[in-house]
């Protein structure tokens, strides 16, 4: 009896030791990102959200993402130096409208398609405050390669760029916004974003 009790104590100690083992920043961020991606996809594909309208799904996906990441970080980087060409009110509106546009494209783009399989791969630390997480996405029998770039900030680890098939989301949007501000204003950008949100067909190819 004492022998079995001793083995049980050893097993319990091993389990507790494993549970308390330190998790690296890379492992923690990969788990966090995978959980966020899965939760966002659940909004679109899980039975619990099947009755929601597209607008409600977009709002819920936004809630899921913003519980883990600050979307302002990646949008501000895309806006770049053009940020200072807008008033504070315009800045707030542009941030919100771009979020709505991206989320609408995300939900609309997956409507009628099978749930994509997202697998996170290698995590590479590029500096003490930056890391990259590789991923593969299988959608409609096509495999896409996406790289998430994260930076440690005062608010925690944040995604500051996404590179899909070697195309940087930040660079792509910054180029479009630079083109706009060469001849347009913050107010005109707001009008343009509102016009885009009224369209039914929005996808990753939609131009600002």
UniProtKB/TrEMBL annotation:
Region forming the signal peptide: 1-25
Database matches in Pfam families: MlaC (PF05494)
InterPro entries on file: MlaC/ttg2D, Tgt2/MlaC_sf
Keyword tags: Signal
Domain of life: Bacteria
Name used for this protein in its record: ABC transporter substrate-binding protein
